[in-house]
Amino acid sequence: VFALSQHMPRQEAEQLVKQAVRQATTEKRNLFEVLPGLTDAKVDWQALSDPAQALGQVQALTSRALLKGL
To answer: How many whole angstroms separate alpha carbon 3 and alpha carbon 47?
Structure first.
């Protein structure tokens, strides 16, 4: 949702992800195989599907939260 919300309104991004989850579940496919077919948003789907990238985002979010005193 966060990556898509850079290209469309957040509510639209949420609906698109929900649709993709339903389709991926029904078709027994990976979410990151389905999403690119539902939008033309310029998102690096390969990077988003990489678990190592997700961990990097966690570190960045944690650092940002600590800097804000959360």
So the answer is: 11
**Contact criterion met (CB below 8 Å) for 10 and 28:** no
- With tokens 């310029």, the residue in question is 42
Residue with tokens 């992800």: 17
Nearest-5° Cα angle at 3, 24 to 19: 30
Cα separation, 65 vs 39, in Å, equals 31
Using one digit for the tens of pLDDT, what is the confidence trace for 17-65?
Answer: 999 999 999 999 998 899 999 999 898 888 888 777 666 666 666 777 7
Q: Yes or no: say if 20 and 35 are a contact pair by the CB < 8 Å rule.
A: yes
Q: How high does pLDDT run on average in the chain?
A: 84
Q: pTM for this structure?
A: 0.69
